[in-house]
Prior knowledge:
The chain is 31% helix and 20% strand. By secondary structure, it is an alpha+beta fold. The chain has a domain of 163 residues: Glutaredoxin. Helix 6 links the parallel strand 5 and strand 6. The protein is globular, with a radius of gyration of 21 Å. The termini are far apart. The mean pLDDT is 88.
Amino acid sequence: MSEMAEVAHPAVVSREEWLAQRLPLLAEEKELTRLMDRVNAKRRRLPMVRVEKEYVFDTPEGKKSLLDLFDGKRQLIVYHFMYGPDDEKPCDGCEGLVDEIGGIAPLAKRDTAFTLISRGPLARLEKFKAEKGWKLPWISSFGSDFNYDFHVTLDPAVTPAEYNYKPVTYTGEMPGFSVFFRLGDEIFHTYSRFARGGEGITDTYYMLDLTPYGRQEDFEDSPDGWPQKPTYG
């Protein structure tokens, strides 16, 4: 029996028949791109909330504040990596996502810092990071309220009501992204997304789409005064 008969596969058609179906799909893909542009434009117009609480993190360079994590940049993206203090091993999904992120140099060029944060102890994070050969910064929020306040360690008894816009259906760690913006020494929370919301964030352009400034390119529909450069300049 031939492999054609044994293996599930798309229907085989002529180039003309394929094109007749491909072109309508292309129209939908273009509409999806335009929809994403409209959603990103709305995200760039979200208001922001001042971060009043002080947070301290364990890093390879010692204790650091949330402000320190900006490293002088205007924006900060945090990936909440599921690796709690009681977890025997890190989340497989988070591991796969970080494997895919790769280089993030374009973030720094657009005034944006990035770090992984987990609630597990720093020594355990450092050990796993070395085993993986990762270069991305990965720090510990162990002992602070950071994970609880930004809704990635879920405990209905302690999760602040103002952050509980997503129903708590279980307890424990949750993956997600949180975005922060800095004005002088003041820090503001601008955006968060959780669970499957982060599945597609495996390149720096999509990550920049989460920030108030976006990709900072002139094709974007951004408010007046936002920093922008020629898209292909």
